[in-house]
Amino acid sequence: MVLNESELSHRAAHDTLPLRDAFAVLFFVSVGMLFDPLILIQQPLAVLATLAIILFGKSLAAFFLVRLFGHSQRTALTIAASLAQIGEFAFILAGLGMALNLLPQAGQNLVLAGAILSIMLNPVLFALLEKYLAKTETLEEQTLEEAIEEEKQIPVDICNHALLVGYGRVGSLLGEKLLASDIPLVVIETSRTRVDELRERGVRAVLGNAANEEIMQLAHLECAKWLILTIPNGYEAGEIVASARAKNPDIEIIARAHYDDEVAYITERGANQVVMGEREIARTMLELLETPPAGEVVTG
Predict the structure, then answer these.
(1) What's the CATH number for 146-289?
(2) Measuring CA to CA, which of 77, 114, 121, 279 is 20 to 30 A from 196?
């Protein structure tokens, strides 16, 4: 949880990836060992009520929240179906409740029963969802509304353009300079507010994560001349660089980094230039001080 709040979160996730499957197996084995199957016979109505809360209560809340934020019905249904199961934190809370004598043993058994049944039913829900959407949606509606909107914003004939990933403090300054220089620009940004503002100004912008290949296709990576990454996460930038280099070997890639190891990592992934902000600040300060070269310092 501490690493998740740092800039090394993605790198930590990558380094610990081999342990994921082992812990996943351990997790499900532990849940199975704690489960008392007699609860299904002794309290079937309570089990069904618990399962209904998980499947319908969580799903309905998620569906309406996603719709409230303006996303499509397909997106809302997909998220609702994905949340129709219990997460691992439910077991932590159940264990804590028992330790504090706030939850009886029967309550923990109900949580375990609801978790196992909801996990088993989740693939079935997704299969039913796909069948429902296939019957009720037209071919055009089967594509996410957000993706359709993004694709319409990018002319099919755009080429030899600058592809700017991230429009925060650094990206916005760079983007304004590129626009002032009449350089064709496409911005990839995860903030809907920023994307809407750019589109209102007539700037081509794609809403999404540049690590997604479909997003890069919408931004016409294959014929872009420059790829400029201003996102602060070095590991994520390195993954984007590697993917972009594979899709467009001739593209000029410039990325941003905060640490020496990030510079080395992004360079190894295929970036032409990596700018480290701290170095540039130090270099500018030295230039402002007009520090003479070593060996020419006059003392005494």
Answers:
(1) 3.40.50.720
(2) 77
